[in-house]
Amino acid sequence: ILDKTERLHELKEIVRKFHPVNYDVFKYVITHLNRVSQQYKTNFMTADNLSICFWPTLMRPDFENREFLSTTKIHQSIIETFIQQCQFFFYNGEIVEAPNPVACQPPPSNTVQMVEPMVPLQLPPPLQPQLIQPQLPADPLGII
Predict the structure, then answer these.
(1) Which long-range contacts (CB under 8 A, 24 or more apart) does 1-8 make?
(2) Architecture of domain 4-91 in CATH?
(3) Taking the complete model, does pTM exceed 0.70, yes or no?
(4) Which of 27, 101, 132, 138 is a Cys-bridge partner for 37, taking CB atoms 3.0 to 4.6 Å apart?
């Protein structure tokens, strides 16, 4: 489909036909990827970069089929479109005209969250190499 708007509406209809659980998971993952892309100035993960990393997982390609390899850019661009247009696909928002990594912020919702909010991970301080490597004598073989 050559017309961008028509193509986006067709993709939206395809996604709406997903099984409800698959739809909810896909919505959650794409929304999260969009949140990551909003921090692109810090993490360098634009929608394009994220789609390169995640399209094989989300689309489950048949890498055994050589003809499929010629369409990898198309599949990657579909995931990029979902990330950029997640407001349109999942939150009844408008189509974003220019590729913009901060296009989608899910609306505030009173619904129950699928997972608990992330809490900061408390890690011990990094181990110092001198503490984990045994101290060797200066000349363990007695050669020098």
Answers:
(1) 4/95, 5/95, 8/81, 8/85, 8/88, 8/89, 8/95
(2) Orthogonal Bundle (1.10)
(3) no
(4) 101
